[in-house]
């Protein structure tokens, strides 16, 4: 039995179909009410038992777009089940560091406004959309193990499902600073989902000095949001300029000037030694390897996803 994390290791070949594959067309054009595959019989429209024809593990961006494709191919109704760790139907995750972080008086983006597939100009797939399309959604019940040979999976609540084909779309997680260097202090944030973004907004409402660690796209977005909240904002990163992997030095310089004109400070070529707590136990400062410290009541760590 394989245990499920964001890096799944399966001992046996995964039964994973591309919706464009000829085998799917064969099923779509079949008039049979039931079909049999590797001895696995599924009623087309019944979720009454533990048998599911198609299961997607993970309810993120990929799941939302895959669901749309299943619907387009007439393969969703009564046949597709999505098992999600989150409490929400799939949404456009990139919104979390864009419109979602706008100050509260600037009409920030909120669900259901950015469910997939609005990011590509598609339909807004609300929870009702999944119901209408006959797609079973299991929320807040992460898959804890998958048995590839038996084609079964178990969720955290103990639900057992048998699948015909499985799509694993569990995305990744934000890498965290270790606890011993302050990576879990109150006021320290990572952003992957709505709950993370809501926690950050709660901090921003009370914050005065914000430090963003990471000079990539998401760091730039979060810093722009923080100055939108009129907060003292510093971006720290180890490279020589913003978006070192993508921007030329001259392009980066133009962005850095724009950010500086809006009040953002930069600490470049810097590595973090640890995050320090104040007397109230919340993060109070970021200590750098060169011995200097930067005061902060809110720190957003965006090193990389894993
Ligand atoms: C803040 C932020 C901003 C971004 N901005 C951009 C951008 O501007 N442009 C861009 O191209 N990309 C951006 N990205 C990246 C983009 O969001 C991802 O590439 C995309 O979300 C990947 O989709 P996915 O479905 O593979 O994973 P995810 O969207 O991460 O979805 C995975 C889902 O699986 C769930 N899950 C994990 N384990 C289990 C389990 N065991 N059981 C059940 N469910 C599980 C997770 O909770 C999650 O809901 C951004 C990402 C973040 C976090």
Automatic annotation (TrEMBL):
Gene3D superfamilies: FAD/NAD(P)-binding domain. One of its GO terms (molecular function) is oxidoreductase activity. InterPro entries: FAD-oxidoreductase/Apoptosis, FAD/NAD-bd_sf, FAD/NAD-binding_dom. Keywords: FAD, Flavoprotein, Oxidoreductase. Residues 54-301 form the FAD/NAD(P)-binding domain. It comes from the Eukaryota. The keyword Transit peptide does not apply. This is FAD/NAD(P)-binding domain-containing protein.
